[in-house]
Amino acid sequence: MERRQWPLWEVFIRSRNGLDHKHCGSVHAPDAKLALQMARDVYTRRQEGVSLWVVRSDQIVASDPQAKPELFDPAADKIYRHPTFYQLPDAVDHM
Amino acid sequence: MAETREPRLEYVLRLGDSALVLGQRLSEWCGHAPVLEEELALANTALDLLGQARLLLTRAGQMEGAGRDEDALAFLRDPQAFRNVTLVELPNGDFARTVLRNLLFCAFQEQLWAGLRASSDAELAAIAAKSAKETRYHVEHAADWCVRLGDGTDESHQRMQEALDTLWPYTAELFTADAVDEAAAATGFGPAWASLEAGWQKLVRPVLEEATLAVPAPTAFRSTGKGGVHSEHLGHLLALMQTLPRSHPGARW
């Protein structure tokens, strides 16, 4: 018997106090509408969120883990990119 | 032999017992659902129904005034004292039958909650307001499945049609008027169930149509669960549900 899997969907939740949706996991579902329902039933049982996104996993373009050295290592010694060398006036308080 | 009680108490027991028994049925899917996601969806629905049952049976116990709480009513009554509609006590069957029953019954609950929000009983009105949100989701989830399976493969369509042929005759009981119904409606306690049929049909028919399912012709068959005369299935369900509290009275976690 043929056993085809439902496609995988990545689930993003915005929590009550959160401003942005955060990735929280994935679900299998036959289509977008049921993927949202599955995400609701699997990931929001304990009031985790007030908004959900789902996106087909195969629609996400990911960076190549093998390319980590050239993509991310060069930022390691560019500490001047962090705005920690400026004297801020007291009035600015926490920035 | 069915006990006869005050009509408003009977009315609340019909609501509470139906929610309890369907919740128990759905919980049987734990560990058996086709996929993890749907297992949680069914368990969530079961827990919602159980929560509704707890509130309703607590209210029934208060109205009865005999000192019985939700647990006493759920676990220490025999089948003939239960007032759930027969539809909810039938075995789950396959997934098709399970989701179709959820559609048929939860769509009915949706009409009920709408009518009960104006109940002369403030407690019942509050339970209805809380439950309505849960039920709206149950209906949507069940309807989405019915459409996908009914209008799916040859096998899923055939299973859905078999489910509809099996369950449809039991829906007549929901709308069969009786003295309990009339008394509740006359006192503003709750809507007569018979008056909910038009709204229910309006909700259910388009879903079945979209699911390409043929609604069976009406028959003279009337199940009688809400009068306390049940199918042979309820006794087995209650035996499983009640065995622990009956074997170990007062047991605590």
Description:
The complex is a heterodimer of chains A (about 100) and B (about 250). Chain A has about 100 residues and is α+β, with helices and mostly antiparallel strands. Chain A contains two helices and three strands. Chain A has a three-stranded antiparallel β-sheet. In chain A, a hairpin with a 7-residue loop joins strand 1 and strand 2 (about 20-30). Chain A starts with 7 loop residues before the first strand and ends in a 23-residue tail after the last helix. The mean pLDDT of chain A is about 90. With about 250 residues, chain B is mainly α. Chain B has one domain: Ferritin. Helix content of chain B is about 60%, strand content about 0%. Chain B contains nine helices and no strands. Chain B is globular. Chains A and B meet through helix 1 of A and helix 2 and helix 5 of B.
Most extensive contact = A-B, 14 and 13 residues
Number of helices of chain A: 2
Which of globular, elongated, flat, extended, rod-shaped describes the shape of chain B? globular
- Our measurement of the CA-to-CA distance between the termini of chain A, rounded to an integer number of angstroms, reads 61 Å
Helix and strand sequence of chain A: EEHEH
Largest β sheet strand count, sense and barrel closure of chain B: none
- Helical fraction of chain B: 55-70%
Compute the CA-based radius of gyration of chain A: 20 Å
**Low-confidence spans of chain B: pLDDT under 50, at least 5 residues?**
none
What's the overall average pLDDT of chain B, rounded?
96
Short key terms for the protein model shown above:
heterodimer; A: alpha+beta; 2 helices; flat; B: mainly alpha; Ferritin
Task: Please give a quick description of this structure.
The complex is a heterodimer of chains A (95) and B (253). Chain A is an alpha+beta fold.
What is the topological layout?
The complex is a heterodimer of chains A (95) and B (253).
Chain A: E1 8-14, E2 22-28, H1 32-43, E3 51-56, H2 68-72
Antiparallel strand pairs in A: 1-2, 1-3
Chain B: H1 7-27, H2 36-64, H3 70-75, H4 95-116, H5 122-150, H6 154-167, H7 179-186, H8 197-210, H9 233-247
